[in-house]
Amino acid sequence: MNTRGGKARGLRVLVADDEAPAREELAYLLGRDSRIAAVRTVGSGAEALRALDAGPVDALFLDIRMPGLGGLDLGRILARFREPPRVVFVTAHDEHAVEAFELRAVDYLLKPVREQRLAEAVQRVCESLALTTASVEPDDGETIAVELGGVTRFVNRGDVRYVESQGDYARLHTTTESHLVRVPLATLEAQWAEAGFVRIHRSHLVALHHIDEMRVDSGHCTVRLGDDVLQVSRRHTRELRDMLVHRARPRRSDE
Q1: What is the reported pTM?
Q2: 3-state class of 26 per DSSP?
Q3: Is 146:197 a contact under the CB 8 Å cutoff?
Q4: Is residue 247 scored above 80 in pLDDT?
């Protein structure tokens, strides 16, 4: 098993491919990405499993066709992990894409891998990990001061269902009322990420635990929070769906 590294922070990546030239080329390209902290390489699915026991892995770039334990077989095993690494399949064959995404792969790359396309896959890994980190319940003890008719009131953050951008201000929507605060949406997005708030559109930030329904119709995605229905932009649809599925997935009895 080979290791490339040197950066202090970033993703810890494992590349599994039985073809040495393809394996080393992919490791080289990943090593050039500033978001990657370390890259380990292995030549088989069995070696990949052993490598996962040897140290933490954030993302696995996995060839589908390997002798013995193939990539899809390994993907099925990883799907049973309580906290599996993100999986990006890398293959010369496009006929396995549907099965790969059924295994909740983050991306599916065709060989030869272009550096720009690889960078997109790394970005999807980063976004997927960020959404999962944000999927915790809000701290109900957090309050926000709002002004109403010269009176300062305190709104519990756990009661905020979604936030709407209004220029340099943001409007907090609860079940029964709304409040305007002098804080840009981008600031709240950064400050409230760990409390389970995620961006679904350039104009909206939503509390994950308040989402009652996600619907995709004719390519358009919406979420329902009580009586309110909000549009989800295309760039956020996939990540939001994957994160909601992750939160709803029941624990196995042996976990």
Answers
A1: 0.52
A2: helix
A3: no
A4: no
Asked if 74 contacts 88 with a C-beta cutoff of 8 angstroms, the reply is no
Instruction: Please give the structure tokens belonging to residue 40.
Output: 């380990």
Query: At residue 197, what are phi and psi to the nearest 5 degrees?
Result: -100, 130
How many Å separate Cα 121 from the centre of its chain? 11
Cis previous bond, 112, omega within 30 = yes
Amino acid at 190: A
Q: What is the DSSP letter of 37?
A: E
DSSP string, 128-157: HHHHHHTTSPP-TT-EEEEEETTEEEEEEG
Q: Which two tokens stand for residue 179?
A: 């409040």
* Distance, CA of 161 to CA of 174 (rounded, Å): 5
Give the rounded distance of the alpha carbon of 179 from its chain centre: 30
Give pLDDT tens digits for 6-32.
Answer: 443 589 999 999 999 999 999 999 999
**How far is it, in rounded angstroms, from Cα 1 to Cα 105?**
24
C-alpha angle 230/189/227, rounded to 5°?
25
Task: Looking at 93-217, list the stretches that DSSP marks H as alpha helix, in order from N- to C-terminal side.
Answer: 97-102, 115-133, 185-192
What CA–CA distances, in Å, run from 209 to 70, 140, 239, 243, 246?
A: 37, 12, 16, 11, 13
